[in-house]
Design goal:
With 194 residues, the chain is an alpha+beta fold. It contains 2 helices and 13 strands. The strands form 4 sheets. It has a 5-stranded antiparallel β-sheet, with no helix packed on it. The N and C termini lie far apart (67 Å).
Length: 194
Amino acid sequence: MNPTFFFVKRPFIWLLKWNSIGLLFLLGLLSCNTEIDTDTPTAGAPPFSGEGYRPIYMGKTEIQKISTTAPQPLRKPGKIYVRGSYLFINEQGKGIHLLNNADPRNPQKISFINIPGNVDIAVKGNLLYADNGRDFVVLDIGNPADIQVVKRIENAFPIQQNPPYIGYFECVDEAKGVVVGWEKVKMSRPRCYR
């Protein structure tokens, strides 16, 4: 046997073998379809009724603006915290109502703390902890008339990918901003279902 033929042929067979495996792997990846067929309902999903949830977006700089404004009506209240004679009532997705509860039979609305995208709050001592979209914020509530942001931890929470409701919804597009809520609207069959 010619030694030159052996050394030339051997690397060629090895290269051919690994290229075949690589080609099969590449073809396998390319054959995976990650797109959802919009004409076929998701397995187990009910028929589409023509209504679904659309994300409400807000820009990052806009969402980070926490301010105290005039009292607002309670529309979608969440948790309630008591600190001394004050009540802090969460307004889902919007912020916190501040009420003076010195006379429990006649609570007085004082102000509204605008915290876009706020869903949850907790209070310990003079500090109020809240989510602000994807950020975690700490507010000093020692003086309820002058509430200040003490700390902000950006991107502390995952991106809100789906509404807190079961049903069809428009998929989140991070390029449009931060999701601060969801609205039910008439739409063409969206690609996402939960």
